[in-house]
C-alpha cells in the first residue's frame, strides 16, 4: 500500500458494500474505521465524501506536499524538499514494504540546481522515515555521538536531520486527526482508556546523508568482499568501544564507498542502535527484538538481549546469504544446479530460517542447522553456487569461532579470520549461471 506511494503521509479509503459505505484511514501507527452508513438514507454525506476526494487540497487527503513530480524527457521525475533545498530523485535505493512501522524510503538524490546527473560527487542520500517518539534517541543522535567520539570513517555523515513540518507543526501520526476525534475514540476491549494515549505516535523525519553508498553485493571480487566485510566489522568494533551496539547488521546495511581504486566498508542504518549500559534499563527495547530476521542471531531470535557477539553472528549470516544468493559480483543467482531448477531458497532446508512469524521457532530452526559442522555443510555450504564455493573454508572457520569455541567470539578474532582468507588466491572465473538446457 505505502511502498508504491511514497508521496502519502496517510491513505484514506472509501469502502462501498452494496448500499453501505464507510471511510477508513491507514497510517504508520494505526488504522481507524468509521461506522458503515446507508447511502440511500444519507446521500448528502456520501456525496460530500466523493466531492472531498475530487476537489479538496491534496494535503488534506494525506499527500506529502514536500514531494512533487513532473514529466521530463526521461519520464516522470520526483523532487523532494529537505534541509532548505530541493533535491532531484535519481533512483530509489530502498523501500520498506510494510504498513505499520517506520515506512522507510531511501533515495539517491542530487541538488536540483546541478544539471549533470552523472556527477557522482554530487550524489547524496535522503532517508524518509516515521520514527517512534517513545523510543528516543534517534539515528541522527547516534551518528553524531559516534562522530563526536572520533569515529568518522565507515559511518554516514549527516548533512541535515529535521522533522518534517505540516501546517507549521511537526508531522506526527497523532496529528492526522483532530482532538474531537481522539476524545471520543476508544480501542476495542480497552474501555475507559483513550486511544491516543495507547497508540504509538510516529514522527516524520527526513535525513540527508553526504554521498551515496554502493551495495556490498556489488563487490568486484572475493578478496574485496572479505575486505569490505572486515572494514565493517572494524567499524562495529570501534562503536562497541564507545558502548554503542548496532543491532541490525544485514546485507542492506553494509555498503561500500569509493576511495580511489579501493572500496571501503560503510555501516549504515543506526535506527536500532543502543547504548549498551542503558539497554537493560529500556524495557521497551528489550521487549522488542530488533534486527532483520534472516540475519538475527540465534539468541536474539530466542528473545535474549543483544550483545556484541550477536552483531558478529549477524555479520556471519551476511556472508552466508551473499554466498547463497549471488553467483558473481553484483550478479544475483538464478539457477540451482543441484536441483536443476531456478534458484529458490525456499526449496532448501534454509526455508526454516525464513518462514513464519514465531521468532522462537526460527531461532530453534537456525540452531538446528548450526549444531554441528556436518549439518552446516549438508544444509548450508552445499547450497552455494560454484562461484562461492571457495569461500566455504572461510565460513567454516568463522562457524567454528562462533559456535564451537570455548570463548565468546570477538571482533579481533572475526577480523583475523577474514584477513587470513583475504590473503589467499581465489578463482574469479564466473561460471555460466544460465538455466540448464536439456539436450
Please describe the topology of this protein.
Blueprint: E1 11-17, E2 20-26, E3 31-33, E4 37-38, H1 43-55, E5 67-72, E6 75-82, E7 85-95, E8 105-111, E9 124-132, H2 139-148, E10 158-163, E11 165-166, E12 169-170, H3 179-184, H4 195-198, E13 202-210, E14 214-215, H5 222-241, E15 244-245, E16 254-259, E17 262-267, E18 274-275, H6 276-279, H7 283-287, H8 298-301, H9 308-325, E19 326-328, E20 331-332, E21 335-336, E22 341-342, H10 359-370, H11 373-379, H12 392-404, H13 411-422
Antiparallel strand pairs: 1-2, 2-3, 2-4, 5-6, 6-7, 7-8, 8-9, 9-13, 10-13, 11-12, 14-16, 15-18, 16-17, 19-20, 21-22
Radius of gyration: 24 Å
Give the overall pLDDT as a whole number: 89
Morphology call = globular
| CATH H-level superfamily of the largest domain | Transferase(Phosphotransferase) domain 1
CATH architecture of the largest domain: Orthogonal Bundle
Q: Into which percent range does the helicity of residues fall?
A: 25-40%
The CATH class of the largest domain is Mainly Alpha
* Termini gap: 45 Å
Number of helices: 13
CATH fold type of the largest domain: Transferase(Phosphotransferase), domain 1
Structural features, described:
Helix content is 29%, strand content 24%. With 439 residues, the chain is of the alpha+beta class. The chain has 3 domains: 11-61, no CATH class; 67-182 and 197-210, Phosphorylase Kinase, domain 1, CATH 3.30.200.20; 214-423, Transferase(Phosphotransferase), domain 1. Strands 5-6-7-8-9-13-10 form a 7-stranded antiparallel sheet, with helices on one face. Helix 12 runs antiparallel to helix 13 (411-422). The chain is globular.
